[in-house]
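Entry 14. Structure prediction run on the chain below.
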Amino acid sequence: MGKQTDKSDLPGYKFDFDHPLGGLRLDDPNCEEPNGSVASVENNSTSRHANVSESMLLLPSRKTMTPVPLEAVRSETRPRAAVVVAHPDDETLWCGGYILAHPEFLWRVVTLCRALDPDRAPKFRQVLQQLGAEGEMADMDDGPDQVPLPIVQVEETIVRVLSGGSYRLILTHGPMGEYTRHRRHEECCQSVVELWRSGVIDTGRLWMFAYEDGGRAYLPRVRDDADRRDMLTDDIWLEKRRLITDFYGYGHDSWEAQSTPREEGFWCFDSVQAAVKRTAFWEQQS
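Output returned:
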């Protein structure tokens, strides 16, 4: 992230430090924040939650929401959250805004590929520093032929880089990926769901990225059936783009820079059964 400011410089943003997760927000009534709290958000005509108890948190309108400095959050109370993706830059493209806006989590970001990439690996570590996150990379095959990988091998790799522990929330790819087409994204999703189903990884909730590109007809955008949609504020979106262009080094006219979505979308699951059922349905449709 860019230069941090003291929390007193954030007009209209009050954190309740006695609340275990601090200030959170909810855009979709069917996709609560990982602590189960309900927050009102402006510019969302579908939300049925118009108010929130002042004893929980006070939030500004979406247009003024600003990331809270990490030093202003009690690290000893931060719950753990993880992002499991195929490649370095996927964490920024598909959920970077959510990470930037929620430093109340202790983030761990892991990738399946490119650990030995002399270009992408050091850039990934720099991005983690900007996000205030920890992380690890694996080096699974990522050749242009996209040869299918044994799912057991993908699962073992995910378990290794996650390094155990319990998570409040895990975010990962959608079952059909975010664009047409990258097999590693699909294998990552399939493996995370199976690991959750078998009890190998422990998380309270699983969110999947919900994007599509109409079969390459347009740049990736949030799917109509997403459970949750977050429209990023100017400051968060610009910081997200800065990570893509200034740290990952993509040109402003590159596919990556143009595809960096201002609106982020997720499918949200608080039970293994729901995730398995819907994933199976999507696989049948593809």
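The two ends are 37 Å apart (CA to CA).
Filed with the rest of this week's runs.
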